[in-house]
Description:
By secondary structure, the chain is of the alpha+beta class. The protein has one helix and ten strands; from the N terminus they run H-E-E-E-E-E-E-E-E-E-E. The chain has one helix at 14-37; strands at residues 70-72, 77-82, 88-93, 99-102, 115-122, 128-133, 143-148, 156-161, 180-182, 189-191. The protein has a four-stranded antiparallel β-sheet with strand order 1-2-3-4, with no helix packed on it. A four-stranded antiparallel β-sheet has the order 5-6-7-8, with no helix packed on it. A two-stranded antiparallel ribbon has the order 9-10. The radius of gyration is 27 Å and the shape is globular.
Amino acid sequence: PKGKYMKHVGKIPPLQFAIQGMLGACVCALIMLAQTASAQSYAISNLWTIKAGDATHPFLTTDNLTRGMAYNPVTGHVLVPSRSGGNAIHILDSSTGAIIGTLPYDGSIIFGGNFIINMVNVTDDGVIYVGNLTTDARTQGPFKLYRWADETGQPEMVYSGDPSEDDATANNRRFGDSLVVRGTGAGTQILLGTLD
């Protein structure tokens, strides 16, 4: 009759149930197709190994003088900053581990902090960033960030200061234990962590 509607309590009307069932089956089929299409497997294999203290790589030590490394996607090299035997950012062949050389280094530009160089990272277009380590950017000296346009370019200091903007907690003023870059060119972002 006009004006009266059937009320379904706790049940789905048959037509609505059939439509929902078909939609569910289509969604399941799409998920299964997507899983099948992306069911590629990758295997990681070890190309080379260098133990700390190896005479062929004297900058790789068991102390805290060598802390980070990064892969340069443009050159296929591995970059390793080390303070062992002097400050340097070593360049290794990523296929063999052989030493290729070091980045150009200028002690009149690169100085200061608890560790003058500590971590390295490389953008997708091969720009290299190295940071020092400061345990307190207020009392132990500023965090400094250095940039190389490529592996043959000269270093430049691109930042010196306290990224926490003088946070009241000392642990929040420690920088250089981590350094991540993302983006390229004017869109490059530098991500730093603090102790806490």
